[in-house]
Design a protein that fits this description.
- The protein is mostly helical.
- The chain has 2 domains: about 45 residues, Arc Repressor Mutant, subunit A (Orthogonal Bundle); about 170 residues, Tetracycline Repressor, domain 2, CATH 1.10.357.
- It is about 55% helix and about 5% strand.
- It has a two-stranded antiparallel sheet with strand order 1-2. A two-stranded antiparallel sheet has the order 3-4.
- Helix 4 packs across helix 6 and helix 8 runs antiparallel to helix 9.
- It is globular.
Length: about 240
Protein backbone atom coordinates (compact mmCIF):
# COMPACT_ATOMS: atom_id res chain seq x y z
CA UNK A 1 0.00 0.00 0.00
CA UNK A 2 1.28 3.51 -0.77
CA UNK A 3 2.48 5.54 2.18
CA UNK A 4 0.36 8.54 3.03
CA UNK A 5 2.04 11.85 3.83
CA UNK A 6 2.06 12.81 7.48
CA UNK A 7 0.58 16.33 7.77
CA UNK A 8 1.95 16.72 11.31
CA UNK A 9 5.48 15.58 10.55
CA UNK A 10 7.06 19.01 10.01
CA UNK A 11 5.59 20.28 13.28
CA UNK A 12 6.84 17.17 15.10
CA UNK A 13 10.31 17.80 13.69
CA UNK A 14 10.27 21.42 14.88
CA UNK A 15 8.99 20.46 18.33
CA UNK A 16 11.67 17.77 18.59
CA UNK A 17 14.34 20.28 17.57
CA UNK A 18 13.09 22.75 20.17
CA UNK A 19 13.33 20.12 22.94
CA UNK A 20 16.82 19.10 21.87
CA UNK A 21 18.00 22.72 21.72
CA UNK A 22 16.65 23.31 25.24
CA UNK A 23 18.62 20.31 26.52
CA UNK A 24 21.98 20.98 24.91
CA UNK A 25 21.94 23.97 22.56
CA UNK A 26 22.99 23.72 18.94
CA UNK A 27 25.45 20.90 19.65
CA UNK A 28 22.55 18.63 20.61
CA UNK A 29 20.68 19.53 17.42
CA UNK A 30 21.92 16.95 14.93
CA UNK A 31 19.74 15.75 12.07
CA UNK A 32 19.93 12.18 13.39
CA UNK A 33 18.91 13.25 16.91
CA UNK A 34 16.03 15.32 15.53
CA UNK A 35 14.80 12.37 13.47
CA UNK A 36 14.93 10.01 16.45
CA UNK A 37 13.17 12.49 18.74
CA UNK A 38 10.48 13.16 16.11
CA UNK A 39 9.88 9.45 15.49
CA UNK A 40 11.00 9.49 11.86
CA UNK A 41 14.12 8.79 9.79
CA UNK A 42 17.11 11.00 9.07
CA UNK A 43 16.49 10.99 5.28
CA UNK A 44 12.92 12.13 5.93
CA UNK A 45 14.19 15.10 7.93
CA UNK A 46 16.60 15.97 5.10
CA UNK A 47 13.70 15.90 2.65
CA UNK A 48 12.19 18.84 4.52
CA UNK A 49 15.18 20.73 5.89
CA UNK A 50 18.62 21.15 4.32
CA UNK A 51 20.56 21.19 7.58
CA UNK A 52 20.49 22.24 11.22
CA UNK A 53 20.52 25.94 10.32
CA UNK A 54 17.45 25.43 8.16
CA UNK A 55 15.60 23.84 11.09
CA UNK A 56 16.64 26.66 13.43
CA UNK A 57 15.49 29.23 10.88
CA UNK A 58 12.11 27.51 10.58
CA UNK A 59 11.79 27.47 14.37
CA UNK A 60 12.60 31.17 14.63
CA UNK A 61 10.14 32.11 11.90
CA UNK A 62 7.40 30.03 13.50
CA UNK A 63 8.00 31.60 16.91
CA UNK A 64 8.10 35.11 15.43
CA UNK A 65 4.79 34.51 13.69
CA UNK A 66 3.13 33.09 16.80
CA UNK A 67 4.36 35.95 18.99
CA UNK A 68 3.32 38.55 16.40
CA UNK A 69 -0.15 36.99 16.16
CA UNK A 70 -0.52 37.25 19.94
CA UNK A 71 0.75 40.85 20.11
CA UNK A 72 -1.46 41.91 17.21
CA UNK A 73 -4.48 41.49 19.46
CA UNK A 74 -3.20 44.15 21.89
CA UNK A 75 -3.97 47.87 21.67
CA UNK A 76 -1.52 49.60 24.01
CA UNK A 77 2.19 49.40 24.78
CA UNK A 78 1.48 48.04 28.26
CA UNK A 79 -0.81 45.34 26.86
CA UNK A 80 1.82 44.42 24.27
CA UNK A 81 4.57 44.08 26.89
CA UNK A 82 2.35 42.02 29.19
CA UNK A 83 1.39 39.81 26.25
CA UNK A 84 5.03 39.35 25.28
CA UNK A 85 5.92 38.36 28.84
CA UNK A 86 3.08 35.85 28.91
CA UNK A 87 4.20 34.42 25.57
CA UNK A 88 7.83 34.13 26.69
CA UNK A 89 6.87 32.37 29.91
CA UNK A 90 4.50 29.99 28.11
CA UNK A 91 7.02 29.18 25.35
CA UNK A 92 10.29 29.48 27.24
CA UNK A 93 12.36 27.15 25.02
CA UNK A 94 11.23 28.78 21.79
CA UNK A 95 11.70 32.27 23.22
CA UNK A 96 15.23 31.58 24.45
CA UNK A 97 16.16 30.10 21.08
CA UNK A 98 14.62 33.09 19.27
CA UNK A 99 16.88 35.55 21.10
CA UNK A 100 20.01 33.40 20.85
CA UNK A 101 22.31 35.07 18.31
CA UNK A 102 19.61 37.55 17.29
CA UNK A 103 22.16 40.27 16.48
CA UNK A 104 24.01 38.07 13.98
CA UNK A 105 23.03 36.85 10.51
CA UNK A 106 20.86 35.09 9.57
CA UNK A 107 18.61 36.02 12.53
CA UNK A 108 19.52 39.72 12.22
CA UNK A 109 18.15 39.81 8.67
CA UNK A 110 14.96 37.91 9.38
CA UNK A 111 11.68 39.79 9.90
CA UNK A 112 11.43 41.19 13.42
CA UNK A 113 7.65 41.39 13.32
CA UNK A 114 7.09 41.90 17.06
CA UNK A 115 9.85 44.51 17.33
CA UNK A 116 8.30 46.47 14.49
CA UNK A 117 4.86 46.13 16.00
CA UNK A 118 6.20 47.50 19.28
CA UNK A 119 7.66 50.50 17.43
CA UNK A 120 4.29 51.04 15.85
CA UNK A 121 2.52 50.87 19.24
CA UNK A 122 5.01 53.40 20.64
CA UNK A 123 4.38 55.76 17.72
CA UNK A 124 0.63 55.48 18.24
CA UNK A 125 1.07 56.22 21.95
CA UNK A 126 3.70 58.96 21.76
CA UNK A 127 3.43 60.39 18.25
CA UNK A 128 6.09 60.52 15.58
CA UNK A 129 7.06 57.73 13.22
CA UNK A 130 7.78 54.16 14.32
CA UNK A 131 11.38 54.47 13.18
CA UNK A 132 11.90 57.43 15.52
CA UNK A 133 11.21 55.08 18.45
CA UNK A 134 13.80 52.43 17.62
CA UNK A 135 15.96 53.21 20.66
CA UNK A 136 12.93 53.27 22.95
CA UNK A 137 11.73 49.96 21.49
CA UNK A 138 15.18 48.55 22.27
CA UNK A 139 14.82 49.75 25.87
CA UNK A 140 11.37 48.13 26.13
CA UNK A 141 12.75 44.92 24.63
CA UNK A 142 15.63 44.90 27.13
CA UNK A 143 13.23 45.41 30.04
CA UNK A 144 10.89 42.69 28.83
CA UNK A 145 13.62 40.16 28.06
CA UNK A 146 15.38 40.76 31.36
CA UNK A 147 12.14 40.22 33.28
CA UNK A 148 11.25 37.08 31.34
CA UNK A 149 14.68 35.51 31.76
CA UNK A 150 14.85 36.41 35.47
CA UNK A 151 11.56 34.57 36.00
CA UNK A 152 12.55 31.63 33.80
CA UNK A 153 16.13 31.14 34.99
CA UNK A 154 15.37 32.10 38.57
CA UNK A 155 12.42 29.72 38.83
CA UNK A 156 10.16 32.50 40.13
CA UNK A 157 6.72 31.26 41.17
CA UNK A 158 3.65 32.55 42.97
CA UNK A 159 3.82 35.98 44.58
CA UNK A 160 7.42 36.60 43.48
CA UNK A 161 6.54 35.91 39.85
CA UNK A 162 3.47 38.16 39.98
CA UNK A 163 5.37 40.99 41.68
CA UNK A 164 8.18 40.77 39.13
CA UNK A 165 5.77 41.00 36.19
CA UNK A 166 4.00 44.02 37.65
CA UNK A 167 7.31 45.66 38.60
CA UNK A 168 8.25 45.38 34.91
CA UNK A 169 4.92 46.92 33.82
CA UNK A 170 5.24 49.73 36.38
CA UNK A 171 8.77 50.46 35.17
CA UNK A 172 7.41 50.60 31.63
CA UNK A 173 4.81 53.19 32.67
CA UNK A 174 7.51 55.32 34.31
CA UNK A 175 9.60 55.06 31.14
CA UNK A 176 6.71 56.15 28.91
CA UNK A 177 5.79 59.01 31.26
CA UNK A 178 9.40 60.21 31.09
CA UNK A 179 9.31 60.16 27.30
CA UNK A 180 6.03 62.10 27.19
CA UNK A 181 7.39 64.75 29.54
CA UNK A 182 10.70 64.82 27.62
CA UNK A 183 12.62 63.70 30.71
CA UNK A 184 13.77 60.36 29.31
CA UNK A 185 17.59 60.40 29.42
CA UNK A 186 19.73 59.63 26.39
CA UNK A 187 23.17 58.89 27.73
CA UNK A 188 26.11 57.49 25.82
CA UNK A 189 27.02 58.05 22.19
CA UNK A 190 24.61 59.27 19.55
CA UNK A 191 22.69 56.52 17.73
CA UNK A 192 24.87 55.75 14.70
CA UNK A 193 23.36 55.77 11.21
CA UNK A 194 24.76 52.30 10.54
CA UNK A 195 22.86 50.77 13.47
CA UNK A 196 19.64 49.61 11.81
CA UNK A 197 17.22 47.18 13.47
CA UNK A 198 14.07 45.50 12.23
CA UNK A 199 14.67 46.27 8.55
CA UNK A 200 15.23 42.78 7.19
CA UNK A 201 18.22 42.60 4.82
CA UNK A 202 19.01 46.26 5.52
CA UNK A 203 19.60 45.65 9.23
CA UNK A 204 23.06 46.48 10.55
CA UNK A 205 24.58 46.37 14.02
CA UNK A 206 26.72 49.49 13.83
CA UNK A 207 30.08 47.97 12.96
CA UNK A 208 32.85 50.41 12.13
CA UNK A 209 32.43 49.85 8.42
CA UNK A 210 28.65 50.04 8.74
CA UNK A 211 28.12 46.49 7.58
CA UNK A 212 27.14 43.23 9.21
CA UNK A 213 28.95 40.13 8.16
CA UNK A 214 26.86 38.79 5.27
CA UNK A 215 25.92 35.24 4.48
CA UNK A 216 24.63 33.93 1.21
CA UNK A 217 21.15 35.29 0.62
CA UNK A 218 18.47 32.80 1.62
CA UNK A 219 15.23 32.39 -0.30
CA UNK A 220 12.28 33.94 1.46
CA UNK A 221 9.71 31.73 3.13
CA UNK A 222 6.00 32.22 2.99
CA UNK A 223 3.47 32.62 5.77
CA UNK A 224 -0.18 33.06 5.00
CA UNK A 225 0.55 34.04 1.41
CA UNK A 226 2.94 36.86 2.42
CA UNK A 227 6.69 36.81 2.11
CA UNK A 228 8.34 37.00 5.48
CA UNK A 229 10.92 39.45 4.18
CA UNK A 230 8.04 41.74 3.21
CA UNK A 231 7.34 43.72 6.35
CA UNK A 232 3.98 44.92 5.08
CA UNK A 233 2.44 43.26 8.13
CA UNK A 234 3.42 46.46 9.85
CA UNK A 235 3.73 49.87 8.26
CA UNK A 236 6.51 50.07 5.69
CA UNK A 237 9.61 51.65 7.17
CA UNK A 238 8.82 50.39 10.71
Amino acid sequence: MPRHPDPDLEQRILEAASRLWARGGEKALTMRAVAKCAGTTTPTVYERYRDREDILRALRLQTRRQMFDALSRTHTVREAVQCKLEFALAHRNAYEMLVDGVAKPPALHEPWLSFNLMRQRLAEHLGGSPREHTRLALAVWSLTYGTAMLIIRGGFQGALRAQTIHACLDALDVMLDSVRSKRFPHTGPKWPPNLILGEGRKSRVGNRNGRSRQRKKEPSRELGGKKLYDLSLVRRGT
